[in-house]
Amino acid sequence: MATPALSATTGHLHRQAITASIPMLASLLQDVLSRRLTAYITGVKDAKTVARWANGEITEIRDQAVEQRLRTTYEITRLLLEGDSAQTVRAWFIGLSPELGDVSPAEAIHEGQLREALAAARLFAFAG
Question: What pTM was estimated for this model as a whole?
Answer without folding.
Answer: 0.91
